[in-house]
Each structure stands twice: as C-alpha cells, then as structure tokens.
C-alpha cells in the first residue's frame, strides 16, 4: 500500500486499509435463489491505468466494508490500493482536515457501496469538492438520488459521478406497483377498517363504490428513466394500463413501442390525461406538484411519489385530498424525512398510503449497489465509459497530474 503524501498528525485516528468483505448475508437454508445483476456488466475489458507514480490507483472507500460481492471485491482490490477511512475520520471536520493534509494521497476514485454509511461528512458541496486532489476521476455511490452531491461542480472538476439507480430500479418499480394499486383499490381505508368489527363491515359494504380496476386506466409517468421504464412495462403488460409519459428528453420510438408508452410534451398535458400520476423524476426537477399544477389533475385523480419528497408541496396535496380533488395518494418519500406532514398523517387511514422511503430497500438492491459501484470505478479507471453517469453534461477532461 502506497503511503499517503503527508504523515497523519499524532492525534488523528488510524486509517484502515480495506479488509476482505464479510460473508454474503444469505442465511443458511434460505430458499431464495441467488439474485441476478440485471443490466450490470460483470467484466472490464481494459487494463486499469496506473496512478500518478505508476503504482496501483488509490480508491477512497467511504462507509462499511463490502458484504455481498466477495468475488467482485477480490478483483477490485487486486486492481487498486483501497483505503477506508474510519468512522471518526469521516466526520466532516476530521474529513476536511484529512483532505487538507492529503492523508490518503492522490487517490483516483471515491467508492461508497452503501447509502446508509459513508455519508458522515455531509453534503458534497464546494467546500469538500475543492479539497479533492486533481487525480480523482470518478465518484461511484450507492443510492438513486444524489441531491446531497453537487454533481455539476464534480463534473466541472473532471469527476464523473455514478449513482446506483440501475441497481434499485427493480425494487422501486415493484414497490411503485403496490402503491399504484393502493390508490385504485383504496387500500388505506381497507387496511385501517379491519381494526374493529363495525368498521370492517362498513368498509366491506362501502369500499366497492370507491374501488376501480386498473385495466384501461391512464398512468402518467413523470420521468422515463430506468425506474419509469420498468413501471411502464409492468403496468402495461400486467394490468393493461394506458401509459403516457413526460420527460425532458423524448425516448426513441423503439423504446416507446416496447413499453407501449406515449409521449406528451408538458406536465400539464400529462396531468390532464392521467388517472394516476407517478413521480419518477430526480430532485433537480424542483417542486413540480403544487397548488398550480394540481389544478391540471382530473377530479378524483391519484398521485404516487417514489422519487423525492422535495418534488411535492405536501400542504397543497393534503388540501386537494381534503377537498376531494385528489381521491388518493401513495407517498414513499417526504419533504422533511423522517417527519411526515401532519395533515397527510391525519389522512393516512382513509386517503393516503404513507411509507418510510422503503421503495428501493431490498437485499437485492444492496447487492446491486455494491456491484455497480465497483464496476463503475473499474470501468472509468480502465479508461472506459462509466456505466451509470449522471453528470456527463458538465464533465470536462481531467488529466491526472
């Protein structure tokens, strides 16, 4: 392992080199078959380029050790010098100090395989990004959202940011289907009414008049990325729904045909045509559901959010539910997590299904996050293309000094 260019201060905690991954978290006797890494390349054809001194490139591994993909990690660790800062070193003041000291040398990549750890330093803003060595070429992280990282500034510094959206698409789309169904079949009301015999009988008699089949209904997708595409395919094939979508870029006709999806050129057009609107857009889209845009919705329409809580004015949505303009909503994400808007909480047993940012949370997603993050680093440092880049529009060439 190459030593860092500066010796850590005596009071600084030691920096561990990344150790072998823990055994895969599959319990003995499990009946689950090994998951497939859908759409994630499992080989790198190019040779990994050396670091500034011709040694192995250094990868800064932030967060927990790799747990699920020991074979890929063996390949990963053979190509790079992997340095994993301790939990104390990842606290923002200590992390900033370590970057200023060049404690980890001229590292070439940042690798964060879990969304639950590795974020102790807070937002990756100008303060942190300005301290990164010019040798950094890729930041590969778990998770779909990246509102905590200034991806434009990273790109302008020559660093490609790669997210884990591809690995989460299967889980999020499956969860979205459950939420969509809940809005048509008034599941919040059906579930809460099972608590007593009186409410059970009342719901049994009354829910029918509020429930609808999905077949032939118009599903409007705001965003047709990996997640939106899977929702479109599943809802069209399984339920016979009519799919419309709005995105900043129209998808190729061949993809639209395969998904049975029809493009509209504005959010207003989508809302006016849809029986249920599903948000699959990144947080950078801003607050797109508010009192103004809700006026475009059909009376009695439905709203599902599996994207980001910041996309929605929750006060306006609660008002629309109370007024009957929206019939039902299902929200997995919220503007002030872990706090949920009190007016929405009051409607949780009748018109709102509220979950705890659970859509992407499966073992298989975490397996994919790990695999995808490692493959992104290996691809970029081999001189190839990133698998899931999100900031190519701001990326400039960054020659390693």
TrEMBL record:
<feature type="compositionally biased region" description="Low complexity">
    <location>
        <begin position="17"/>
        <end position="28"/>
    </location>
</feature>
<dbReference type="InterPro" id="IPR006139">
    <property type="entry name" value="D-isomer_2_OHA_DH_cat_dom"/>
</dbReference>
<dbReference type="InterPro" id="IPR006140">
    <property type="entry name" value="D-isomer_DH_NAD-bd"/>
</dbReference>
<dbReference type="Pfam" id="PF00389">
    <property type="entry name" value="2-Hacid_dh"/>
</dbReference>
<dbReference type="GO" id="GO:0030267">
    <property type="term" value="F:glyoxylate reductase (NADPH) activity"/>
</dbReference>
<dbReference type="GO" id="GO:0016618">
    <property type="term" value="F:hydroxypyruvate reductase [NAD(P)H] activity"/>
</dbReference>
<feature type="region of interest" description="Disordered">
    <location>
        <begin position="1"/>
        <end position="49"/>
    </location>
</feature>
<dbReference type="GO" id="GO:0051287">
    <property type="term" value="F:NAD binding"/>
</dbReference>
<dbReference type="InterPro" id="IPR036291">
    <property type="entry name" value="NAD(P)-bd_dom_sf"/>
</dbReference>
<protein>
    <recommendedName>
        <fullName>D-mandelate dehydrogenase</fullName>
    </recommendedName>
</protein>
<keyword id="KW-0560">Oxidoreductase</keyword>
<dbReference type="InterPro" id="IPR050223">
    <property type="entry name" value="D-isomer_2-hydroxyacid_DH"/>
</dbReference>
<dbReference type="GO" id="GO:0005829">
    <property type="term" value="C:cytosol"/>
</dbReference>
<dbReference type="Pfam" id="PF02826">
    <property type="entry name" value="2-Hacid_dh_C"/>
</dbReference>
<feature type="domain" description="D-isomer specific 2-hydroxyacid dehydrogenase NAD-binding">
    <location>
        <begin position="179"/>
        <end position="359"/>
    </location>
</feature>
<dbReference type="InterPro" id="IPR029753">
    <property type="entry name" value="D-isomer_DH_CS"/>
</dbReference>
<comment type="similarity">
    <text>Belongs to the D-isomer specific 2-hydroxyacid dehydrogenase family.</text>
</comment>
<feature type="domain" description="D-isomer specific 2-hydroxyacid dehydrogenase catalytic">
    <location>
        <begin position="124"/>
        <end position="391"/>
    </location>
</feature>
């Amino acid at each position: 392992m190459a030593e860092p260019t500066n010796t850590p201060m005596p009071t600084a905690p030691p920096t561990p080199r990344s150790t072998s991954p823990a055994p895969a978290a599959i319990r003995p006797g499990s009946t689950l078959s090994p998951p497939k890494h859908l759409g994630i390349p499992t080989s790198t054809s190019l040779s990994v380029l050396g670091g500034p001194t011709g040694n192995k490139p250094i990868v800064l591994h932030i967060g927990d050790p790799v747990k699920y993909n020991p074979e890929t990690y063996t390949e990963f660790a053979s190509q790079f010098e992997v340095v994993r800062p301790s939990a104390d070193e990842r606290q923002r003041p200590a992390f900033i100090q370590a970057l200023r000291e060049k404690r980890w040398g001229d590292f070439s990549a940042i690798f964060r395989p879990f969304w639950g750890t590795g974020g102790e330093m807070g937002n990756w803003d100008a303060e942190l990004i300005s301290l990164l060595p010019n040798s950094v070429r890729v930041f590969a992280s778990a998770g779909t959202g990246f509102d905590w990282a200034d991806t434009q500034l990273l790109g302008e510094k020559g660093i490609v940011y790669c997210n884990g959206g591809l690995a989460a698409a299967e889980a999020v789309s499956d969860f979205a289907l459950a939420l969509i169904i809940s809005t048509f079949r008034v599941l919040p009301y059906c579930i809460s009414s099972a608590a007593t015999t009186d409410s059970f009988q009342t719901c049994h008699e009354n829910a029918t008049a509020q429930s609808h089949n999905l077949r032939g209904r118009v599903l409007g997708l705001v965003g047709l990325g990996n997640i939106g595409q899977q929702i479109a395919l599943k809802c069209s094939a399984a339920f016979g729904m009519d799919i419309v979508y709005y995105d900043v870029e129209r998808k190729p006709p061949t993809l639209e045909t395969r998904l049975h999806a029809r493009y509209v050129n504005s959010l207003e057009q989508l809302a006016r045509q849809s029986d249920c609107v599903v948000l699959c857009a990144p947080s950078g889209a801003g607050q797109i559901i508010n009192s103004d845009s809700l006026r475009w919705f059909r009376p009695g329409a439905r709203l599902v959010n599996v994207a980001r809580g910041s996309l929605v004015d929750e006060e306006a949505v609660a008002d629309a539910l109370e007024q009957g303009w929206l019939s039902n909503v299902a929200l997995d994400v919220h503007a002030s997590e872990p706090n949920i808007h009190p007016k929405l909480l009051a409607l949780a047993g009748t018109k709102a299904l509220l979950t705890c940012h659970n859509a992407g949370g499966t073992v298989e997603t975490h397996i994919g996050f790990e695999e995808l993050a490692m493959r992104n680093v290996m691809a970029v440092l081999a001189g190839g293309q990133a698998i899931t880049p999100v900031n190519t529009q701001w990326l400039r060439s960054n020659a390693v000094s």
